[in-house]
Design goal:
single chain; 362 residues; Dihydrofolate Reductase, subunit A; 2 domains; 5-stranded mixed sheet; 14 strands; 29% helix
């Protein structure tokens, strides 16, 4: 097997924990001795041993003189766990193949430098693009000091996300709705605006796929209109954070008593909200609607990925994205399709910004 093959295996190991390691990146590692795979590992999550340590423990004495393949640069600092570079050196690794450098300034090339100083042969950049995409949320979180933002829409062929009355169940197919739960599994938190929340009473939990945790549920509710019997308050399935801007001591006390987290902002500004969420270790935010909320993230350029489920339906009159401030065709937001595929009767499109985006400046 080639370097690319071993690194592909390491990436597949890392993908097993996607969404389960926040605020840490997801990392996979393979140890190879004379063509034999002697160690495999991935990072379970914050506070657990890193992928390199897991793979080296599995390799045991066979690690000496081996080549180690890892999807992210090994760390050099003491955090919740000791430095991985020291583990590689102690184990007698001969060569380290690293997919991509760590954007964290605490590491940022220091791990590679430390290994080279210890006499290891180090190669960097094998499947770098794939490794960057796998951890693009972590890269954004570290470099931009805000969560990576995924926007999600389900719409008709003519771009409607709901009827004039607000009904949207269901525009997308069952297959698309299951896939949407996979998107939730990648996110630290899921956010909706007030209108969508009041209309749909969503649960915002991961239900259609097996998964080891639930995302933080966030609703923007300026005047604390959230009903106490709503799913986000009463179902006990996951933590809920309500973002509000008008004080109501009685309602605040009632919500706190129900276990709801509250975030008061004198003026709710999305940029400031994202900074606050980052301070709470929200690495990846999924925005599920509605049309107004998604439009505001688009308008302010606070997004990194847009996932559109397009159903083979035509609605005519209805609710769509709005308020983007576009007067001329040349002023339209320009997007790039990163991938597309069929799900049931729907097509799913994944877009990223065409121009350099703050969230993609690595």
């Amino acid at each position: 097997m080639s370097d690319v093959g071993y690194m592909s295996l390491a990436l597949s190991l890392a993908k097993r924990r996607k969404g389960l390691t926040h605020p840490n990146p997801t990392v996979g590692c393979v140890v190879v001795n004379e063509g034999e795979i002697v160690g495999l590992g991935y990072h379970e999550g914050a506070g657990h041993p890193h992928a390199e340590v897991v793979a080296l423990e599995q390799a045991g004495e066979k690690a000496k003189g081996s080549t180690l393949y890892v999807t992210l640069e090994p760390c050099t600092h003491f955090g919740r766990t000791p430095p991985c570079t020291d583990a590689l050196i102690r184990a007698g690794i001969r060569k380290a193949v690293v997919a991509v450098k760590d954007p964290n300034p605490v590491v940022g090339g220091k791990g590679i430098e430390r290994l080279r100083e210890a006499g290891l042969d180090v190669e960097v950049g094998v499947l770098e693009e794939e490794a960057r995409e796998l951890n693009e949320d972590f890269f954004t979180f570290i470099t931009m000091k805000r969560p990576y933002v995924t926007l999600k829409l389900a719409q008709t062929l003519d771009g409607k996300v709901a009827t004039p009355s607000g009904d949207s169940k269901w525009i997308s197919s069952p297959e698309s709705r299951r896939f949407a739960h996979r998107l939730r599994s990648e996110a630290t938190a899921v956010l909706v605006g007030l209108n969508t929340f009041l209309r749909d009473n969503p649960s915002l939990t991961i239900r259609h796929i097996p998964f080891g945790r639930q995302p933080l549920r966030i609703v923007i509710d300026p005047e604390l209109e959230i009903p106490m019997d709503s799913n986000l308050v009463s179902d006990g399935m996951a933590q809920t954070l309500v973002v509000f801007s008008r004080r109501d001591p009685a309602k605040e006390s009632e919500l706190l008593g129900a276990g709801v987290q509250l975030l008061y902002m004198e003026k709710i500004e999305l940029g400031e909200l994202l900074k606050e969420l980052a301070s709470r270790d929200v690495l990846h935010l999924l925005v599920e609607g509605g049309a107004y909320t998604v439009s505001q993230f688009l308008k302010e350029g606070l997004w990194d990925r847009l996932v559109v489920f397009q159903a083979p339906r035509v609605m005519g009159d209805g609710i769509s994205l709005s308020g983007l401030g576009v007067d001329r065709v040349n002023d339209c937001l320009k997007l790039k399709i990163r991938r597309e595929h069929a799900l049931g009767e729907d097509r799913v499109f994944e877009y990223v910004p065409v121009m350099e985006s703050p969230g993609l400046r690595w």
